[in-house]
């Protein structure tokens, strides 16, 4: 595999033209700035990118989890819609991509500082990215093993480990090639998956019990289940603080409304519709093991198709997970920062594959492990997205991509000792509060206990993080003075005329 620039046909001068982002070729760019002459594409392409990554079995499981929590049909559907409104925030974050020409993890240097970002941006990103890669690999591996068994293909002793390796290789292959290849293949994957899920929807709705009534819960337990369900649903859109990664190749002049809208819609639609199918399926079958129990309500010929959908959907979701995780890894700095993006995808993919063996072959109950991890992830994901979203707002989406690329002590984003304390303090305060408010199957924070089990982490974490960051941003250097804020500058002010390069429009 070569990570050198792909060679295009010779130009008129006889010299080869360098294509840094061409489908079928390994993408050259990583966390660095995309120059204006390399920008291309239209906002509507983002719809297909996010749609293909979210037509997945994961949402079906989440819908079933809401029923297992004891929610009624309409309550579960309402929680599904409300929790997925966080996709609007994902769309908002995406507008920073065309403005800066850099991925999200590079932009985060503006809110945490060069060194602070290596922990609160890149560091957290690698951990969260690998976590979701593990989930996708686990789902795909279990479905592949079930598909082989259904087809009468027996595995030798230890053969499941071979399945894990093959699934992982397929999961990360497309991500290695990068942005243009993802854009090219997204519509194809979307159509194939959508057709299968439409058929699944027909069978599920035929078997669903629309008069389903869950066992009654006490007042406190009922509200606790509703809020916990919201946290489970919200965890997935909150994990996508990487919208700029796929929008950064768009021209800087592109419509921000279009970037935001297509990104949010591409994630929101499948998340809501597929989770709704999971809710209705939960009224007819046991959703503690939906992969097996669903065979009771679908025709025999469709069951292997359903298993294949789990495999393919998990792989398409992992395409974006692995791509962004590779960028996060590259942003850790030092020698790691000089590792080509394609190889960082491979490295993080190998780590995720090794970790996936635990929930697959060691953990006593994969669904419990999955639920607990997903619930707790909100405690850091919510604050991170909130800080990012507020930073875009207070800076009016003005980012200097070249300055963001600079990690030296002379960088305008070095701040004090490489750390921007408003961002760091907002994350620490909000995440700590969210952990104290969390209520999972393995852990219940003291505040959650005092509130009869209500888990407010998915609400309080982002609100506190955004509020603290905005307050500190306006009361600490370098933006304590009104004249130092981006709102006081004209868009066409030259970089040399400003005191902080973050204030220059990309």
From TrEMBL:
The keyword Lipid biosynthesis does not apply. The keyword ATP-binding does not apply. The chain crosses the membrane at residues 47-74, 86-107, 119-149, 161-178, 185-205, 225-247, 259-281, 301-329, 341-361, 373-394, 414-436, 456-475. GO terms for cellular component: plasma membrane. It is a multi-pass membrane protein. InterPro entries: Pur-cyt_permease (IPR001248), Pur-cyt_permease_Fcy2/21/22 (IPR026030). Its main location: membrane. Keywords: Membrane, Transmembrane, Transmembrane helix, Transport. Pfam families: Transp_cyt_pur. GO terms for molecular function: transmembrane transporter activity. It is found in: Membrane. Belongs to the purine-cytosine permease (2.A.39) family. PANTHER family: PURINE-CYTOSINE PERMEASE FCY2-RELATED (PTHR31806). This is Nitrate reductase. It comes from Orlajensenia flava.
């Amino acid at each position: 595999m070569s990570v050198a620039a792909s060679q295009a046909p010779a130009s008129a001068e006889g010299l080869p033209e360098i294509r840094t982002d061409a489908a079928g070729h390994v993408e050259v760019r990583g966390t660095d700035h995309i120059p204006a002459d390399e920008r291309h594409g239209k906002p509507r392409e983002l719809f297909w990118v996010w749609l293909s990554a979210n037509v997945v079995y994961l949402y079906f499981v989440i819908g079933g989890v809401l029923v297992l929590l004891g929610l009624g049909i309409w309550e579960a559907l309402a929680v599904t819609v409300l929790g997925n409104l966080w996709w609007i925030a994902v769309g908002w974050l995406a507008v920073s991509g065309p403005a800066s020409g850099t991925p999200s993890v590079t932009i985060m240097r503006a809110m945490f500082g060069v060194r602070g970002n290596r922990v609160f941006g890149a560091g957290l990103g690698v951990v969260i990215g690998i976590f979701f890669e593990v989930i996708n690999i686990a789902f795909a591996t279990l479905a592949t093993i079930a598909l082989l068994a259904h087809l009468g293909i027996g595995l030798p002793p230890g053969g499941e480990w071979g399945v894990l390796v093959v699934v992982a290789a397929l999961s990360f292959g497309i991500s290695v090639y990068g942005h243009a290849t993802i854009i090219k293949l997204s519509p194809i994957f979307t159509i194939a998956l959508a057709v299968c899920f439409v058929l699944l929807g027909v069978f599920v709705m035929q078997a669903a019990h629309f008069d389903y009534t869950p066992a009654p819960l006490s007042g406190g337990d009922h509200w606790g289940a509703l809020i916990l369900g919201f946290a489970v649903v919200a965890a997935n859109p909150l994990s996508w603080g990487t919208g700029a990664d796929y929008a950064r190749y768009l021209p800087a002049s592109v419509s921000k409304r279009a970037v935001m809208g297509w990104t949010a819609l591409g994630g929101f639609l499948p998340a809501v519709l597929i989770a709704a199918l999971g809710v209705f399926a939960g009224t007819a079958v046991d959703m503690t093991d939906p992969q097996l129990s669903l065979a009771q309500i679908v025709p025999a010929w469709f069951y292997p198709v359903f298993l294949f959908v789990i495999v393919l959907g998990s792989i398409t979701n992992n395409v974006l997970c692995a791509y962004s995780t590779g960028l996060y890894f590259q942003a850790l700095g030092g020698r790691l920062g000089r590792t080509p993006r394609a190889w960082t995808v491979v490295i993080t993919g190998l780590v995720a594959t090794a970790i996936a063996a635990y929930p697959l072959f060691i953990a006593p109950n994969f669904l419990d492990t999955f639920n607990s991890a997903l619930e707790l992830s909100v405690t850091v994901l919510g604050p991170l997205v909130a800080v990012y979203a507020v930073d875009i707002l207070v800076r009016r989406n003005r980012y200097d991509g070249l300055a963001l690329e600079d990690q030296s002590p002379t960088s305008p984003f070095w701040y004090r000792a490489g750390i921007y304390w408003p961002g760091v303090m907002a994350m620490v305060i909000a995440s700590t509060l969210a952990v104290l408010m969390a209520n999972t199957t393995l852990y219940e924070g003291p505040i959650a206990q005092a509130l009869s089990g209500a888990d407010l982490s998915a609400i309080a974490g982002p609100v506190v993080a955004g509020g603290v960051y905005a307050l500190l941003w306006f009361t600490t250097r370098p933006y304590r003075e009104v004249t130092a804020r981006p709102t006081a500058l004209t868009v066409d002010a030259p970089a040399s005329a400003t005191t902080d390069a973050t204030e220059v429009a990309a």
